[in-house]
Amino acid sequence: MIFSSSLRSAARRGFVTNAPVNGFDGAIGNTPLIYLKGLSERIGSKIYGKAEFQNPGGSVKDRAALGLINNAEKLGLLKPGGTVVEGTAGNTGIGLAHVCRAKGYKCVIYMPNTQSQEKIDLLRMLGADVRPVPAVAYENPKNYNHQAKEYAESLPNAVWTNQFDNVANAQAHYDTTGPEIWEQTGGKVDGFICATGTGGTLAGVGRYLKEKSGGKTQVWIADPPGSVLTSYVNSGGKLTERSGSSITEGIGQGRITDNLGTFVKQVDGAFTVPDEKSIAMLYELLETEGLYLGASTALNVVAAYELAQKLGKGSSVVTILADGAYRYQSRLFSKKWLEAKGLSGAIPEHLKKYSVLE
Ligand SMILES: Cc1ncc(COP(=O)(O)O)c(C=O)c1O
C-alpha cells in the first residue's frame, strides 16, 4: 500500500486509516473535519466543523464517556462487572450506556423527572438503569447529581463519573479532539470556538491548540442565552446570577466547572448567540451544506461565522458539530413549537419549507 509521508504519520497516530478498529471504543473519534463551503465562501474565510455527530453513539460526548471510564479503570476504581453511575439527561448518558455495554459494566443514570419519555426509553434500550428523580435545584441534596454520587458511594466496585468536575473529561479532548484538529488543518487554525456544557470540549481542545500554536490560535466561548460565561469572561472573572433560557440543549452554564477551570483564564473572548440566530442557522445548514444538526451545533456555527469575520478575510476557524437533529426533530421542525417559542419569524421565508411538521 502506498502512503504519502503525511498520511503515514497520520496513520501512526491512528488517523485516516481504513484499518479495522477495536469495538465500539475504537470507533470513537477520528471524525472528519468538514469544510463548510457555502458559508465560508460567503465571507471569504474558512469555516470548519468537526463532525462529532459521526461518533458511534451520535455525539461529541462519546469521547468524554470513554475518557471518564478509562480513567476510572486506570485509577483502579472500576473492575470487571462494576457499575458506572452518572447524573445526566443527555448525550453523556447515551455515550456512557454504550461504552458500559461494550466493556461489560452496569450503567445507572439519574435524571430530573421532567425529561421526555423518549430520552428515558432510549437509555433503557441501551441497557441503562434509568432513575428519574424530582427536579430540584443543585443546592438541594435530592438533586439528581448528588443522588448519583451517593448511590455510587453506597455500592462496591462502582464509580460516579462526575462529568462536570472530573477533568478526565477535558483530558479526553486534549488527547484526541485537539490533536485531530491540529493534524487535519495542518496547524493552520486561527480560531476555535464552541459552546460549553461541562466545558470539557472547549478546555481540552483549547488547551491543546494554544500549546501547539504557541498561543497564536484564539479560543473563544460561544454562549446560549441564560448562561453566565460571556459576562464572566468579559468582566474579567465576575460570576452573575443565571437569568433567561434557550432552546439549545446540553450547553449553557451557571458556574465555572472544574473542567472549564483548567483553561478559562486563557480564553480570548466570549459572546452570546441569541436563539433567533441559532434556529435560522439550523435551517441554513440544511439548505447550504446539506447537514441535519442539533441546535447547539447551529449555535456553534453562527459563532464560528462571526468569529471568522472578526479575525478577518482568509482566517480559518474551527467549531464542533456536536450531534444530529434526530433527537430534537419533533420540536425543531414543528411549526407549532416554533410559534410557541416565538421563533417562527426568525426563519427566513426561503427556508420555511423545512419546518414540515405541524
Ligand atoms: C448537544 C451537545 N452539545 C454540546 C455539549 C457541550 O459539550 P461539553 O460538555 O464538552 O462542554 C453537549 C454536552 O452534553 C451536548 O450534549
TrEMBL record:
UniProt-recorded Gene Ontology molecular function terms: cysteine synthase activity
Classification via InterPro entries: Cys_Synth/Cystath_Beta-Synth, P-phosphate_BS, TrpB-like_PALP, TrpB-like_PALP_sf
Entry EC number(s): 2.5.1.47
GO CC annotations, alphabetized: mitochondrion
Keywords: Amino-acid biosynthesis, Cysteine biosynthesis, Mitochondrion, Pyridoxal phosphate, Transferase, Transit peptide
Similarity remark: Belongs to the cysteine synthase/cystathionine beta-synthase family.
PANTHER family assigned: CYSTATHIONINE BETA-SYNTHASE
The protein's name in its UniProt record: Cysteine synthase 1
Provenance organism: Coprinopsis cinerea (strain Okayama-7 / 130 / ATCC MYA-4618 / FGSC 9003) (Inky cap fungus)
Lineage of the organism: Eukaryota, Fungi, Dikarya, Basidiomycota, Agaricomycotina
